[in-house]
Design a protein that fits this description.
The protein is mainly beta. It has one domain. It has 1 helix and 5 strands. The longest helix has 10 residues.
């Protein structure tokens, strides 16, 4: 996941990328899911983060997997 985050950040420097535990988004629908790893589009107002299915609305990418920790890459 760290390689994916680094690649995304290089290609889209204005889009924030964070990694969290999959448990924290158990009730949200991921855009992509593969082998226990999930990708979500999100919007941020600075304090609040909202998951969205629309890539055009997103200014944040959330990478979630089992056992991951909170924080920015």
């Amino acid at each position: 996941m760290s390689e994916a985050a680094a690649g995304w950040r290089k290609r889209y420097p204005d889009v924030r990328v964070i990694r969290i535990s999959a448990v924290e988004l158990f009730n949200e629908e991921p855009v992509v899911e593969f082998r226990g790893r999930r990708v979500y589009f999100a919007t941020s107002t600075g304090v609040c983060v909202s998951v969205t299915a629309e890539a055009s609305e997103a200014d944040m990418l959330i990478l979630a997997e089992e056992g991951a920790y909170d924080g920015d890459y």
